[in-house]
Design a protein that fits this description.
This protein is α/β, with parallel strands linked by helices. The chain contains twelve helices and nine strands. The longest helix is centred in the C-terminal third of the chain and has 14 residues, at about 290-305. The relative contact order is 0.10. The mean pLDDT is about 95.
């Protein structure tokens, strides 16, 4: 809601599933870092170790909790250098509640939900009707009237981008909806959870030629577009943006954070300089940011100058 107030065009959330099949907004597969689950002694026995995207992870897995149980928890800020005054107040919200925040805004606000860790979720959550996580995800969007190809009248009335790091999930979803999809790209050394290929392999010319039949854009980690040097400066940009644009694909990198610790020295501790570099020098088509008010003010400022 604050992001909407600050001028965000889209609000974004990762979507995962509960033990009893409800879809909720949450980034991690474990609850440890951003909820007070450790304070709930009734859940102490739930902590265990599972493999998540090729690594063993220990914690309280969201797929081991029902929606009713999750609603007893409260969120907390992950990072010590950010405002913690809201710790212990907000509950985990459902995908439905997230959608309604956008639909009840006073202007048109798009949503940008992620199909998060679909391989893991389909391994650990089973629906009685035999459907998969991707089926439930798309069905929820359709329930609220989302659909239509990018920039059609139907789409502009309820804008949505469906994002995922899993290419097979995006291809599967393409048979379920014509809503635009975005292929997320991690560090090039990381392997996808579904095809066991590195992101370097699947950002080749051949693979992008294949994926452009299913997606309207890519969402790369910004360090894969412009790698940083060891002394926190910017190296020469890769050709990823040019490769995408040559195929008619948009580029929406993630995530832009205004704190000095996240800004490369080239930007002289000025987030506006970072926005200007990415939008005008690198030429990306959109940005994920933790600080929408800052980006909106930059846009207003630069528009006034022009």
């Amino acid at each position: 809601m604050r992001a909407i107030d600050e001028g965000a065009d889209f609000i974004e959330s990762d979507i995962v599933a509960t033990k009893d099949g409800h879809l909720v907004c949450f980034h991690d597969m474990t609850l440890d870092d951003t909820t007070d689950v450790a304070d709930h002694k009734e859940f102490a026995a739930r902590r265990r170790t599972l493999e998540v995207q090729w690594a063993n992870v220990t914690g309280y897995f969201i797929t081991d909790f029902t929606l009713a149980e999750l609603k007893t928890l409260r969120m907390k800020q992950r990072w010590s250098f950010r405002d913690k005054s809201h710790d212990g107040i907000s509950p985990i919200i459902t995908f439905d509640e997230f959608i309604n925040i956008a639909l009840n805004a006073k202007r048109v606000v798009g949503i940008y939900p992620e199909m998060k860790s679909p391989v893991f979720i389909n391994q650990h959550v089973k629906w009685a009707d035999g459907k998969k996580y991707e089926d439930k995800f798309i069905a929820t969007l359709k329930k609220y009237g989302y659909g239509g190809k990018y920039m059609t009248k139907r789409w502009t009335e309820k804008p949505v981008f469906i994002q995922s790091f899993a290419p097979t999930s995006l291809i599967y979803a393409a048979d379920l909806t014509d809503s635009p999809k975005v292929f997320l790209i991690d560090d090039v050394t990381v392997r996808t959870e579904d095809t066991d290929q590195s992101y370097e392999e699947i950002t080749s010319d051949e693979y992008l030629d294949y994926m452009r039949e299913y997606v309207v854009g890519i969402g790369p980690w910004k360090d894969t577009v412009v790698p940083p040097t060891r002394d926190n400066k910017l190296a020469t940009p890769t050709d990823m943006v040019a490769m995408a644009h040559a195929r008619g694909l948009q580029v929406h990198p993630y995530t832009y954070r205004n704190e000095n610790r996240f800004l490369h020295y080239n930007f002289r501790q000025d987030p506006y300089a970072e926005y200007d570099y990415w939008l005008n020098s690198v030429g990306v088509d959109g940005l994920f940011t933790d600080f929408p008010a800052s980006l909106r003010l930059y846009q207003d400022w630069t528009a006034a100058k022009n």
